[in-house]
Amino acid sequence: MARPRGRIALILLPVLVYLFLLSPVFNSELVFTPAWAVKVDEAPVQNGGDSSLTLKKEVKDLIPFKLDRIFGYISPDGTLQFRDTVLYNTLVNNYGFINYSNVSENLVLRNPDGSILSSFRTSGYPVILEGNRVIVIDTSRSSLKELDFSGTEKWKRDFPIIITSIGGNGSLLFVGRADGNAELLDGNGALVYQWKTEGTRISIVYACAVSESGNYLAVIAGIDPQKLVLLEKKDAAYRPVMTQILDSSFRRAVNLQFSGADRYLFFEDSEKLWCYDLEKKQEFSQVAGVRSLQVLEDPQNPLFFHIYSIPEHRVFQIFSRTGYTLTQMIIDETSFLDVLPGTLYLGEGGTLMRLNIGHN
């Protein structure tokens, strides 16, 4: 059950202070209204069970969340529908979840109510849970396979060297490798396109991304220099349309993602997050601290929500589509962010909250 509104104000106070009082440049026409706040490790679970829940048929549009070592599903009205503890790691989406240990040889796929959908034996870890498909990488990081929700293997593909990055859009997979090559695979695991790093001292792919439509690909690769390459599909072939030399020399996974509807590309640079407008061919940058973690767009309002890390903390930032920082605040190192049209879900310090975004 969601907390009474009187207690919401106390839990949300730090967020509300930043959003309403300490943001002198905030657009006065936008209003963030608190709806509820829930302590996910204390709130009662619908029907009283943590792992034996039977969801009501009328419950729809559940919000999957992962906040520190707790994950589960919450309904838009703030009712906690399912809760469990992360073992080693968990992948969770609207269709179900996989909660697995670091030594398990069996993966169990469960419904949002915790009931078992399927169980399959595999020597690897799930890396992508998209729609009703599961992508598993083997322990050597040189092989991928796709399973459906029944546990049936649809395809398997071996690679000559370790995989360093994977991006997907639900039907395509873009797989980066340690030798500087990146392969685009279709829904059957067949090769559609291959890209190769050129003009750098060290060739290795650190990030791959595929746009929602599949018409754009993006790669961050190489050392000395490190490059971003944007490719667009033209006449059934992908061709580079932008190459940008970065200030960074990352030797880790890098934040690289497209927004919905193929409108924006976000990519991490040294202490910066770049936003490239694919339609207007313009870009701007934002502060990104030590590492950019996540960027989400509100399709109903001209806002981006960004979480980045600084030493011992994370920062929650809101900026406009013109690159103007509206506000930012320090939050707990364990955080959760999800955005639906006109709605912001923010988790911090063990509390999951909903803020409705409206206009005066």
Question: What are its keywords?
Answer:
360 residues; mainly beta; 4-stranded antiparallel β-sheet; 1 helix; globular
- Level of helix content? under 10%
Order of strands across the widest beta sheet? 1-31-30-29
The number of strands is 31
Structural class based on helices, strands and sheet pairing:
mainly beta
End-to-end Cα distance: 29 Å
Query: How many DSSP H or I helices?
Result: 1
Could you characterize what this model shows?
With 360 residues, this protein is mainly beta. The protein has a domain of 113 residues. It contains one helix and 31 strands. The strands form eight sheets. A four-stranded antiparallel β-sheet has the order 1-31-30-29. The protein has a four-stranded antiparallel β-sheet with strand order 5-6-7-8, with no helix packed on it. Strand 26 and strand 27 form a beta hairpin. The longest helix is centred in the N-terminal third of the chain and has 17 residues. About 8% of the residues have low confidence.
